[in-house]
Structures are given as C-alpha cells and as structure tokens.
Amino acid sequence: xxxxxxxxxxxxxxxxxxxxxxxxxxxxxxxxxxxxxxxxxxxxxxxxxxxxxxxxxxxxxxxxxxxxxxxxxxxxxxxxxxxxxxxxxxxxxxxxxxxxxxxxxxxxxxxxxxxxxxxxxxxxxxxxxxxxxxxxxxxxxxxxxxxxxxxxxxxxxxxxxxxxxxxxxxxxxxxxxxxxxxxxxxxxxxxxxxxxxxxxxxxxxxx
Length: 207
Ligand SMILES: *[C@@H]1O[C@H](CO)[C@@H](O)[C@H](O)[C@H]1NC(C)=O
Ligand SMILES: *[C@@H]1O[C@H](CO)[C@@H](O)[C@H](O)[C@H]1NC(C)=O
Ligand SMILES: *[C@@H]1O[C@H](CO)[C@@H](O)[C@H](O)[C@H]1NC(C)=O
Prior knowledge:
alpha+beta; eight-stranded antiparallel beta sheet; 5 helices; binds 2-acetamido-2-deoxy-beta-D-glucopyranose; MHC class I-like antigen recognition-like domain-containing protein; glycoprotein; signal
C-alpha cells in the first residue's frame, strides 16, 4: 500500500492545486461488448481504459490484448500479471458463449447486445474498490461483489437465472474476486508507475 501511495504522490504532487486531485479516484476497466445478430452470427469488441485513456485494444481474432501506449513494459512481466492475461482470455471467450447457449432459456431476443465491465478504482489513502457488471441491451442485468453475482433490481427473472448459472462456478467467482480485488489494483498501479512521465505530460502539457 505504501508503494501505491508513493506512486500516486509522485503522480499528483507537482503543481499547485493538487488538493482536489487527491480526492479523485483513478480507475482501470476492461470493457467487452458482444453483439448477437442471430443464432449464428456474433461479434465481440474489447478495450481497456485507464480513466479516459484507452490503454489496450483487443484483437478479437487472436483474443490477445495489445498495449497501445509507448511506455516501458518491464513492470508487467511478473507472474500475477501474466495470469491476468489468461483470465481475460478465458472470460472473453466464455462470456459470449454463455449468452449464446442460453438464448432461449433467458428469453434473449435477437438482435441483442451484452456488455461486460470489469475493473477497479483506486482511492487515495483508502482500500481500492473492484467491480464487475453485465448489461443487457444497455441496462444493468447483474453485478458482482463479495464473490457472488447479484441480480439487478430491474433485471427481472432473466437476471436471477443469469446469476444462478454464473454462481454455479465457484472457481471462476474466486478468480474474478482475486482479479478485481488483488490483481487489478496492482496492474493499475504498475500502469501508473510505468506511464508516470507520459501521463504527467498529458495531464499538464505546460509542465
Ligand atoms: C445472421 O446474420 C447475418 C448478418 O446479418 C446474415 O448474413 C446471416 O445470413 C444470418 N444468418 C441466419 C441463419 O439468419
Ligand atoms: C472484430 O471487431 C471488428 C470491429 O472492431 C468487427 O468488424 C469484426 O467483425 C469483429 N470480429 C469478430 C469475430 O467478432
Ligand atoms: C460476504 O460473504 C460472506 C460469505 O457468504 C458473508 O459471511 C459476509 O457477511 C458477506 N459480506 C458482506 C459485506 O455482505
């Protein structure tokens, strides 16, 4: 945690009016949008974002994430961060399949779109917050916390059915919990650390 605070300190301190900056959380999030046109035709697009800045594009042919920034990448080469890549890969292929396979049971009507958002938020001096949500046709369907998927109050019986299925996989839930609570903040802080100089130029072009 001390390391993290140092990173944030280095990131925000130079400049006069940093009081407000300290209160601003920083997020890292991965977004997958799957569009289902009919039973046999589906497209997925993925991306990853550090706040408003896109850091990764997703190659939907190979399933690989491509880092878009010109920062040194040495910091990302540890074991945990490689596991993150594998986790992304299994989620990105697994999620759309679940919706494809349960189309009639969940009364999904073609064409439809499913969005998956996974990420975490760093709050200066506080514990980070992890989140994961799935939306159907732009409305929140289910969300994840405390290692369990929960139906959105407006999601009806479809949301309950989706939760029931997703919650059957305890191992996946544990992995995702670990990802959003442990790995994601680590990844976010290493991104900030590696990109510090570049980000400061972006935030304060005159400095
Ligand atoms: C599915 O949609 C695509 C694109 O609109 C179309 O080319 C294809 O023929 C459709 N397939 C079926 C089985 O309807
Ligand atoms: C991949 O994404 C592109 C748009 O970025 C889209 O045109 C293409 O159909 C997608 N392919 C698959 C297999 O989803
Ligand atoms: C999280 O889940 C555990 C086990 O199901 C439960 O004991 C605990 O009270 C939950 N925590 C919160 C904040 O709901």
